[in-house]
Amino acid sequence: MIEILSPTELPRARAAGALVADILQTLRSRAAVGTNLLDVDRWARAMITGAGAQSCYVDYEPSFGRGPFGHHICTSVNDAVLHGLPHDYALADGDLLTLDLAVSLRGVVADSAVSFVVGEARPPESVAMIDATERALSAGIAAARPGARIGDLSHAIGSVLAGAGYPINTQFGGHGVGSTMHQDPHVANAGRPGRGFTLRPGLLLALEPWVMADTDELVTDADGWTLRSATGCRTAHSEHTIAITDDGAEILTLPTGAAVG
Ligand code: MF3
Ligand code: CO
After folding, report:
1. Alpha carbons 161 and 139: distance in angstroms, whole number
2. pTM
3. % of the chain with per-residue pLDDT over 90
4. Where does a divalent metal cation 2 bind (predicted)?
5. What angle (nearest 5°) sits at the alpha carbon of residue 254, between those of residues 29 and 148?
6. For the chain, how many structural domains are there in total?
7. How many whole angstroms separate alpha carbon 137 and alpha carbon 216?
């Protein structure tokens, strides 16, 4: 099913997006060398409940995971790229951390992910990989407007990733968002322009380019959730939720700078 938000629902989507973005920004600023992933999860839970929002993850039991997720944020480190299950691990200088968060606020969901390097180190390949996913995300957003097709967005995203030299895995990608986190249409991270669903005002989409440095093959961790690169190489992931507007697209998950938690 594809949901189209009414104009009166858009303010709620903006509020959900701002909350997700401000929580991610706060967690990013707190994540330091020595920070434990379980603390990140606890901080996320406190900020979600403190804002009167609901976690989209804690009870989530999709076919691609084992049982309910049981945590409030995805924490994916280095070779982990998607659905990283928070566990007892203290971050080290130079770790590449991806935080992926989706919450529901007054019935509307927003979903966003950021990747960054922890501490003082700036490993050039990691910085380049994060940059490629951010540029791919920007290109996808720039292609989003009423009348554009999903394939136009996929093509824009995939062209940047492939142009940066990364293999592309199309098992997981972006998706429609609305009263629930994962909805149609699927937005693959590569594709042909001029194909697929035609965008219209009120559609919410989560666009989420992700890459692995030297492989397109994923393996599932023994925890039943965390998806890692098959070769152990580093990975990156960037995601925004956008709303299609009358003349383009609005990014809902930009930090406002408001204090949360
Ligand atoms: N928010 C993720 C996405 O970007 C999905 C996480 S599912 C979870 O689509 F169960 F792992 F939390
Ligand atoms: Co998503």
Report:
1. 10
2. 0.98
3. 98
4. 111, 175, 208, 239
5. 145
6. 1
7. 19
